[in-house]
Amino acid sequence: MQQIEERLAHLTRTVEDLSDVVARQQDEIDRLTRRVEMLMQREASREAEGTGGVVLGDERPPHY
Question: Cα(30)–Cα(61) distance, rounded to whole angstroms?
């Protein structure tokens, strides 16, 4: 019986640890999602202003 109780205690601790990990990962996912949304909005506003051009490797810069 003691072995079962020890194993149950160990499994309970493992579940709690994993729950903490999942909670931290969700916080990070939420934070990264907000950053991506912010960057997408910033890029959309640049495109609307016409300042978000992409310079390709074979194009000369405008000062040439």
Answer: 38
The reported pTM is 0.64
Planar angle of CA 8, 11, 14, nearest 5 degrees: 150
pLDDT value, residue 30: 98
Residues 6 or more apart from 61 whose CB is under 8 A from it?
A: 55
* DSSP result, 6-64: HHHHHHHHHHHHHHHHHHHHHHHHHHHHHHHHHHHHHHHHHHHHT------TTSPPTT-
